[in-house]
Amino acid sequence: MDYLTATANKKYLMYISQNYSYAILRPLQAQILAHGGEVRWFLAGNEVNPDFLDDDEKRLNSIPATQKWNPDLVFIPGNIVPSFIPGKKVAVFHGFNSGKLNRRGKEDHFNIRGCFDLYCTQGPNTTTKFKELARQYGFFKVVETGWPTLDPLFSNTLNNPYVNNDPRPTLLICSTFSRNLSLAPKLYEQIKQFSLQGKWRILMQFHPKMPQEWVDKYKALNNKNLTFIETDNVIPILKAADIMLCDTSSVLLMFLLLRKPVVTFRNQKPQPHLINVTEADKIEAAIEHALTRPKNLMQHIENYCLDIHPYSDGKSSLRVLNAANKFLHKSDKLKPKPINIIRSFKMRKDLKYWGW
Known about the structure:
Layout: E1 11-16, H1 21-34, E2 38-43, E3 59-60, H2 63-69, E4 73-76, E5 88-91, E6 118-121, H3 124-137, E7 141-144, E8 170-175, H4 188-197, E9 201-206, H5 212-219, E10 226-228, H6 235-240, E11 243-246, H7 251-256, E12 262-265, E13 275-277, H8 283-291, H9 295-308, H10 316-329, H11 341-351
Parallel strand pairs: 1-2, 1-4, 2-3, 4-5, 5-6, 6-7, 8-9, 8-11, 9-10, 11-12, 12-13
Helix pairs in contact: 1-10
């Protein structure tokens, strides 16, 4: 960790556009502050709620204010960041590669948009591909660090509000927002039945972009057997559950890292570490089977976890900070990032900024 001491007196910007990004970047913020750096937050767009900022977290309210502050490094858990934000841009990802395909039939996780100088990858299964892309494009570097978000996953959660003395297994149901991939519209009647029969204690949590129609329908199912949760930090919920029902949302990979089984409904890319079901009437039996933690399934989960995120020491934030500082200080010359006029115009329009 040779470059951690370089943190002192440097400026680090957290550039976010979704509420879940707070939890992604806060472990990294804690290490920056512990090593003498300064942190500011920039909230882009109207889908991130400023009320989630803690009292001691400092926000920059405009692009000019951000330019005046002039950060050395910018950490982004999203897909894009404008070029008119100063500082070296570091991608830390908003989730794992869950196999989602874009409209061109390619994995969206590896879509190079020309915004970043450094990618801090989570594990071998993405590092290898990103390093190939780095050689191909030549305008960014790649370092495998693990994911800062998961540092709290590998430490004790004190006073977890989602843990109680209910003797029943706890089933966590999560869903992505994509209409084609989401289980929410397809399994409503099935989940309603589960909530009435009371076999399991059910927790539900959706992607923040889930259409409000489905959020409201599932909220209406709240009863003694089912609790719908809206939060900017999913980790305590993951820790509280015994098993997950999901679709193709990347949150299922975080759950697997706890070495817990996942039942998926019509997963886009089913593999042996998942129990994938394609018919609604097969879900209950799949959940009961998964709760037995079959030996073969658990071994597949272990192998997969070592591939996607081999770090369980809770120090990924330190590795990201070290890699970013090292990148800032090394003189390796990269090609200029491409200029995307259309994307730049859209970002200027979204952020209502037309200066330079």
